[in-house]
Design brief:
300 residues, single chain, 12 helices
Length: 300
């Protein structure tokens, strides 16, 4: 139970090593073993850089190779899948043509290694207009003149085109940028995928749902401000059963009572408990629903 449709394995294992001194590969092994013992159907390791796919695969392989039990290792290998994409980083936007060439080459290399079936999505990519230069993403409005705005849109659309060509779902990152996000999606005409870490209201949810998108929620739902909790509960109840996904976005957005710590996929049960309670379902019932949606969207 308790699939996680969005995590950054290398990021959370290396962050844990920096904080606690625990070897990243060993920590990753322990998380993967726990997921296997919990009979997790699906874990999706998400790409953010044009050339990070091979490194991410190796990072997971380093942990998987430490698993002694054959059956457990086999479960993990069945469970883990990958996406490949380019987060809207300033450098990647500025060099988007070369970045896209590198991304497509990385995907081709992945296929040539016989792992093509493990690539189930393109992304995460999209539009981010949340300005916080001191934050983890270092977003600064000063970096985004008109040319950079258009470049960000173009990079997103180029990746949507790739997903369309490959007939794969797209993992959309959209923060404080609904209009631009929707405009790019309409321009390309590809409505297959996930609005990751959904943070908008019901009207925006309806707009995406009407076009066929899935909405993913995680730990951030658990620390919604009291003044906005009624709206959050309404939103979580509003999303149809067949369009709902859950994720951690590890190492970010750890759920209450772990907020502020390094997140990892083992914490997702807390989100299933919280969101399930808002939808009148047990965590197990919600898990079955999410797994059904995963099978449908990612064709596993």
């Amino acid at each position: 139970m308790f699939s996680d449709t969005h995590f950054h394995f290398q990021h959370f294992t290396e962050a844990q090593e920096r904080e606690s001194g625990v070897d990243a590969a060993e920590f990753g092994r322990d998380i993967l073993v726990q997921m296997a013992h919990d009979d997790v159907l699906f874990g999706l390791d998400i790409g953010t850089k044009c050339d990070d796919l091979a490194e991410r695969v190796q990072c997971l392989r380093n942990s998987i190779d430490l698993i002694d039990d054959h059956n457990t290792k086999a479960k993990v290998e069945r469970m883990i899948h990958y996406s490949a994409g380019i987060w809207p980083d300033v450098d990647e936007i500025s060099d988007r043509w070369n970045a896209m060439e590198s991304l497509e080459q990385a995907i081709e290399d992945f296929k040539e290694e016989g792992m093509g079936k493990k690539l189930v999505a393109i992304g995460e990519g999209g539009i981010d207009h949340h300005w916080n230069p001191s934050g983890v993403d270092g977003r600064s409005e000063d970096d985004f003149d008109e040319a950079m705005y258009e470049g960000e849109r173009e990079l997103f659309q180029m990746q949507l085109e790739l997903a369309k060509k490959m007939n794969l779902p797209f993992i959309v990152h959209s923060r404080d940028a609904f209009e631009d996000t929707m405009d790019c999606i309409k321009n390309i005409g590809w409505d297959k995928g996930v609005i990751h870490c959904f943070t908008y209201d019901i009207d925006v949810a309806r707009a995406f749902l009407d076009r066929g998108w899935y909405l993913a929620f995680g730990g951030s739902t658990t620390y919604t401000k009291k003044s906005k909790m009624d709206a959050m509960n309404e939103l979580l109840s509003f999303v149809p059963d067949d369009r709902l996904l859950l994720e951690t976005d590890s190492p970010y957005l750890a759920p209450v009572p772990l907020r502020g710590t390094i997140n990892n996929p083992s914490n997702i049960k807390l989100s299933y408990e919280f969101i399930g309670s808002r939808r009148g379902k047990t965590p197990g019932q919600l898990s079955k629903l999410v797994d059904k949606n995963i099978r449908e969207l990612f064709k596993i």
